[in-house]
Amino acid sequence: MINDIDSVKRLGDGPIVIVDDDEMQRDILQSCYERSELTDELVLLSSGTELLEYFKVVLETNKKTPSIVMIDINMPGLNGHELVKKIREHDEFKVIPVIVMLTASNFDKDKQMALENGANGFLTKPSDVNIYISLFNNLKTS
Q1: Looking at 39-48, 58-67, 91-100, 126-135, which range is the least confident one?
Q2: Highest mean pLDDT: which of 3-12, 45-54, 109-118?
Q3: Structural domain harbouring 92
């Protein structure tokens, strides 16, 4: 299980996709990404529904498959747990590689549920923007 930023890896050189309903959190992530060494496409989405629509576009076009998807657990509508479960239930979405749950929670119950639903890992949201920058730098492909 992924439980720290040094363990987070991506598959391939496709876009990095992050789903978080909190606009301020997305702005922070965007800013940290811009300060990182990465130049790959960053896709920021605000809901599970947007992610499912994005996956459909990827599957129906020549868009690159995401190399990693990070999903906030606590979101209205489809929460992160429900979203991962829904993704893993559909054959066409099983091609999406790594799914890491992002959350402010550090409860073992949330970690276990994330893995049971098909997440590849669980990462507690860092409180320091420099940690986010390090996370993105760690995602560089060779």
Answers
A1: 91-100
A2: 45-54
A3: 5-124
Query: Rounded to whole angstroms, how far apart are CA atoms 42 and 87?
Result: 20
Q: What is d(CA 21, CA 141) in angstroms, rounded to the nearest whole number?
A: 27
Distance CA(83)–CA(89), nearest Å, equals 10
What is d(CA 77, CA 36) in angstroms, rounded to the nearest whole number?
Answer: 31
**101, 121 contact by CB (below 8 A):** yes
Asked if residue 137 is part of any domain, the answer here is no
> What pLDDT does 93 receive?
73
What residues contact residue 7 under an 8 Å CB cut-off, 6+ apart? 121
In a domain, 31, yes or no: yes
| CA dihedral over 26, 19, 4, 126, signed as positive or negative | positive
Contact 128, 14 (CB under 8 A): no
What is the residue-averaged pLDDT of the chain? Answer: 85
114: domain CATH number is 3.40.50.2300
